[in-house]
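FAQ: What does a ligand-bound record look like?

Like this one, built around C3B:
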Amino acid sequence: MLISNCLAGLADLGFRIEDVIEQEHDAALGNGGLGRLAACFLDSLASLNYPAWGYGLRYRYGIFKQEIIDGYQVEVPDYWLDFNPWEFPRHDVTVDIQFFGHVRKSTDENGRTVAHWEGGEIVKAVAYDVPIPGYATPSTNNLRLWSSTAASGEFDFQKFNNGDYESSVADQQRAETISAVLYPNDNLERGKELRLKQQYFWVAASLYDIVRRFKKSKRPWKEFPEQVAIQLNDTHPTLAVVELQRILLDLEGLEWDEAWNIVTNTFGYTNHTVLPEALEKWSVPLIQHLLPRHLQIIYDINLYFLQSVERRFPEERDLLGRVSIIEESQPKMVRMAHLAIVGSHKVNGVAELHSDLIKTTIFKDFVTIFGPDKFTNVTNGITPRRWLHQANPRLSELISSKTGGKDFLTDLNELNKIELYVKDKAFRKEWADIKLANKERLAKHIKASAGVTVDPTALFDVQVKRIHEYKRQQLNIFGVIHRYLTLKAMSPEERKKQQPRVSIFGGKAAPGYWMAKQIIHLINSVGKVVNNDEDIGDLLKVVFLEDYNVSKAEIIIPASDISEHISTAGTEASGTSNMKFVLNGGLIIGTCDGANIEITREIGENNIFLFGNLAEDVEDLRHAHTYGTHEIDTDLNRVFQEIEKGTFGSTQDFAALISAVRDHGDYYLVSDDFHSYIETQALVDDAYRNQEEWITKCITSVARMGFFSSDRCINEYAEGIWNIEPLRVEKEEGA
Ligand code: C3B
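The answer part, i.e. the structure of the complex:
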C-alpha cells in the first residue's frame, strides 16, 4: 500500500522510482569488508529486535571515487553528503571533546589522589542519526554518526571584527578536519595524528552518550555491564576502554579495581586480521601529547596486568615483554590489540580458521594467561535482505515460491527446502534464465562503463574486492595471461573447443599502495591487448570495472558464474563476499582460507573448487624461499617472460610485480600456488561445459547457505558475548 502510494505520488510529479533510486549515493563510510560487515550487523540487529546502536564518524568525504585513466587508478573525492535524505541532524545532541592539555593531581578529603585533565582544546561533536529499520518488524534502531565542529561556534566574531578574517575561521576549519575524511587504507595502519584524533573523538563522544543514558536510569555503577555491552569492531575504537576507566575513576570517583571490573565486563573485542601491517600501534609520545591522562591510565592498566602475570608466571621473564601493552621500541609504542584483549571479557575471530590462528599465533600468550574460554569464534555472516532479496529480486522470488510458509528472509535455514527441487525441470529452467538475465544486465554495465562487449553466455569469472597483495589479484591476472598464451598457441580448431570466459576485476587500491596500483595497471594493460586480439575474439575478455562499491556489487555478484577468493592461506580472516556470491548461485574458486573452509563444509566439497597450499605450510614455504633456492613455476616463468617482452606495454611498470615473486621471497606464495591454480581453473572450465551438472551444484550450494546469515551471527554475539535478549516494540495503535 505504502509503496504503491509512493509510486503513484512520484508518477504524479513526473518521476520514475528507478530514476529516483539511482540518485542515492552509497554511504561511503568504510573501506571494505570490515565496514560492510558492520552494515550487515546493523540490519540483523534491527531485524532481530535487539536494542542496539551503531556509532561511527560522519565523514564529509568517505572512501574516494576511483576513476581509471589510461589504465591507472586516479582518486577523486566523493562528496556523498551532497544528498543524504536518510540522516537527521541532532543539534540538540552534542558533546565537548578535549584534546592536548596536561594533568594536575590533587588529594581529596579522603586522602585519595585525584587526576584533573586540564587545558588543551575543545572540539564539539554533533550527532547525526541514521535510522536502521528492521525487516518485517516495527523495530528501528539507530546509527549515530558524529560530526566535528568548533566548540566556539561558527567563527570568532571578535577576530572577524578586528579585520583578522583568516584566523577568524581557522578554529572552525581545524575542528572540522577531524571528521572531514576517511583514511582510505584497508588492512593497513599508518599511525597519523589525525587518525588518532578521529578515534578518540569518536569513542569519547559515543561513551559520553552511553554513560549519559545509563546515568538517567539512576542504577548503581556495578549494574553498568548488565545494562551495556560494547563490542570493539577491530582495535580502532580501543581507546574506549581507557576512556571508560577514566570516566569511572576521575569523574565518577570509583576505585581502580571496581572501575576496571566494570570496564572489562562491558567490552568485547573482535579481531578481524592477523596481517602484521594492520595491527595498530600508536607511539607513546603521540598519545602523551594528544591524550596525556589516557597515557597515564594505559601505563597503570599495563602495570597491574604485568604484575598479575608476573605473580602467576614468575619464571617466564620473556613473557612479560611479549604481552606488555607497551612495546619497548624507539619510540615506545602502545599495542592496541593487547590493550583490547586485556580490557575485554571476550575476544573473538571471524571464521573458524582465523579464530584458531589467533589463539596459536599472535595471541598465543594471552591464551596461556587468561585461559582458552576468553577466546571464541563467531563466523561472519551477511544479510540476505540486501544480498539476495534486494540484489537479486527474481532469484529471491523463485526461492520464496518454493520455501513457502515461513519467510526465508527471516530464517535463512529455510533455504534448504529448495534442494527438493534440484531435479525439477521448470525450477531449473527459471534458475538458469535468472542467471542469464543477471549476466545480460552486467554485460550492459560492462559495455557502458568499460566499453567492452562481452558475450553473456561466456563463463563470468569475477574477483571484486580491495586490491591487496595478500588477496592475490596478481595470481589471477598472471593466470589470465597464461590462458591467453595457451589460446594463442592453439590451432583455430583447437580454440573452438575452449570454454569462453570473461575475467572481471574490480576494487580500489589504497592511494599510497604502489604495488596494488601496479596490479590494476597490469589488469588494464592485459585487457587492452587481449580484448583487441582477433585470434581470441570472445574466448577471453578481461575487464576492470571502475569504482567498485556496494551498488556495483549488487549488479556484479548476482551475475557471477565463478568468483575468486584466492588469498594466501591464513591471511584472509573470513571474507564475506564469498558468502554473497554463493548465495546468489555462483560457485567459488578459492584457497583453504577464512570462511571458504566453512562454506565448503556446508555446501560440500564437490561444489567448490579449492586449490593451493594450506595455512599450516605457509611459514615453512616462506622460510624455504628465503633460505633455500626458490624455483619459479615454469608456466609462471613463461608469463613473466611475456610481460618482460613488452607484450602488455611498458615492462618497467610491471617489473616490481615480477620481482616480488622471483627475487624478493614471494611472500604471498604466488609461484607455489600457480600450478594448482591453473589446474583448478581447467576443472572449472570442464565443469561449466556440463551445464546440467553446474546448475545442480549452484542450486545445492544455495540451499545449504543458511548458516551464513548475519542473523545467525548476531544471535551468537547476543548469546555468547553480550548476554542480551530481543526486545520487540510493537507498533502503537494508529501509527
Ligand atoms: C576484513 C578482513 O580482511 C576480512 O577477511 C573480513 O571478512 C572482514 O574484515 C570482516 O570481518 N578487514 C578489513 O576490511 N579491514 C581491516 N582493517 C581488517 C579486516
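Follow-up question: can I read anything off the structure? Yes, for example: The chain has a mean pLDDT of 95.
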